[in-house]
Amino acid sequence: MLSRFSLFQMRIRCSTLETRISCFLMFVQAGLLVLGASWNSVTFDEVSHLPAGISYWQTGEFWCYHHNPPLIKQLCAVPVMLLGPNVDYRSFQYRPGNRSPDFEFAADFLDANPKNYETIFLIARLVVVIFTVWGGRIVFCWASELFGARGGLLAQALWTFCPNILAHGCLVTPDMGATVIGFYATYVFWKYLRAPSQGLALLSGILLGLAEASKFSCFVLPIAWVCLLGIRLAIYPLPVSTAGDAVRNTAARLGLDAFLLISVSLLVLNNLYAFDETGTPLCEYHFLSKTLTKDLKNPQGKTTRVNRFQGTVLGSIPMPFPGQYLLGLDDQLKDNDTVMFRNYLNGEFRVGRGWWSYYLFCLLWKTPIGTLVIAGISGILMFGRRFFLRPSSDANVKSMGWLNAFALILPLVFYLVSVSLSERLNAHLRYVLPIFPFAFVLMGGSIAFFESKVWRQLLLTLLLLINVISVGRTCPFFLSYFNEFTGGPRWGYLYLADSNADWGQGLISLRSWLAKNPQEEPVQLAYFGGLEPLRLGIPYELPGTLGEITETNKVLSYGPRPGIHIISANYLAGLTIGLSDGSRGRIYNMPQNAYTFYREFEPDAILANCLFVYKMDEDRVNRLRERASLPKWKAEEGKTTEDSGND
Question: Which long-range contacts (CB under 8 A, 24 or more apart) does 227-236 make?
Fold first, then answer.
């Protein structure tokens, strides 16, 4: 199988059957993603990402939700702006170091578009769907060049039916866009290292700039690329001649290509920010993170934190980066400084610290078993150095086996290690989403093993079928996917929380369930998400607890009451967050494990794999209240004395 590449196209010469299978996988994935985009309600971070993207176009300001760069948000906003949505800028005011304006602006956007809010987000999500399907094509192309078209089909099949790719491939967040662009950029740079040319250097620079404008985690790419260049020069040295002219000419060309690549990437990044404050000296920024600040005592002896670069030579140098790019990066670093985040893994909470192995467990619990087995076989083969050379018929590919290996392994390792080092913030498997395409291409190399014998072909077929069935069981609510090792989404909250289990995607299913099961009184709902259910036409009240909760400075004892109770998987895990009480109009600060007592009951229904429905009768409620030394609920009175006092 031969591969051909042009600057803007990827074409693989393969049989008609293989081409049709690849296209079929793309259509299947597109269908699954559209289902996910249609049935999952707007998730926690999406509520702010899309309005921020619209604001960039309309105002030319980039501070809103700047702790992620603007590119993906801007692209998602393009088709939405064609619809002419209403945008309320009353709360649009930059307050450095404060994210409240981001969420206030997001709430105003919902209020300004109450009837077509979900349609707006569905259209925006289709942009990310296109990225995801395109990512599958790149996976197929790279794996096909290394291992033949069948190796490419194996890699693409793993991408197509990966629940984590399907989960984030239909959401208005930067994760999937950054994953695909960063992967494509590395693919092009790998081609450049094999056969250097100014065209490939130019395209690598453009794609690197786009990647850096998508998500800050892409900072690992230039580091990995420098290492790859070193490997290329160390293992596959430059041509040598008696006069040394070839060496000098090639070295000069590589130097010019490197300058071109870096310059173009910076030009692309700054252009996407409209050159906002580009060239500002580093010392003039008001940083907040510990990484970019230092302690300074004033004449009164009080210590304040100031820009670390004030009074330094580096601080006086104009920065070739946009201002909000650096301030957004500082905002991300500030998150890593905090000791207030509650991290959750395998039933254990840690405050302000986490686990170096957190993302390894995430991958173990949220990757289909078939993929895990194929990954294990690929690892054994790779350790035995049994692929990267043989399957491809391209002599240029075969001649650089180690470069092929490191081009996939280094970005994967750098992404995983860089995120794992931030132990204070263990929350989302999506942080390591960029490792998936590299891993799937590596797994494509195992095709030689599976094709060698009939029983191995049957094994591969079985493993892929297991993946399809496992993922199909959670369709279209892929965010809540957990593999059979955990017992599936029903028990996933015992292992992981936050966006790994419930990111607020269940409101559409809840509204549909309530339409089929109308209630005389509002349901009692503990919802985790960025939307207010009342604004989407879902009346509710907050379920009572067995302990104390607080409203501002007032301590309340708000016991369970009979009725339909709907609890987010995150609260079953014990997560804590400020919760709205719906029609009461209050915000309560919930203690850790406020709703974990529901675990002792079997849910009567599970909505979107993340909202657990319990029909709590008077007998159940009074048994719980007795345990907490609360007065019994009396049906004839309608409420207890202490509940009445809290109204």
Answer: 227/406, 227/410, 228/189, 228/190, 228/193, 228/403, 228/406, 228/407, 228/410, 229/193, 229/254, 231/402, 231/403, 231/406, 232/193, 232/400, 232/403, 235/402, 235/403, 236/399, 236/400, 236/403
pLDDT digits (tens, 9 = 90+) for 317-345: 999 999 999 999 999 888 877 766 788 99
CA distances from 234 to 109, 192, 262, 497 (A): 55, 16, 22, 45
Three-state SS at 146: helix
Q: What is the mean pLDDT of residues 296-310?
A: 81
Rounded Cα–Cα distance for residues 147 and 563 (Å): 59
- The answer to whether residues 21 and 107 belong to one domain is yes
Which residues, other chains included, contact 106 with Cβ-Cβ below 8 Å and sequence gap of 6+? Answer: 47, 48, 51, 530
In angstroms, the first-to-last Cα distance of the chain is: 73
Answer yes or no: do 232 and 364 share one domain: yes
Burial class (CB in 10 A: 0-12, 13-18, 19+), 532: middle
The H or E element that residue 464 is part of is: helix 454-472
User: Does 276 reside within a domain?
Assistant: no
- Domain range for residue 53? 15-268+354-469
pLDDT at 243 over 70: no
Residue 368: closest CA among 474, 441, 446, 445: 474
Beta pairing partners, 12: 3
Same domain? 375 vs 455: yes
pLDDT of residue 608: 96
Non-local CB neighbours of 80 within 8 Å, separated by 6+ positions: 50, 54, 120, 123, 124
pLDDT band at residue 4 using 50, 70 and 90 as cut-offs: very low
Q: Find residue 241's DSSP bridge partners.
A: none
- Domains contained in the chain, number: 3
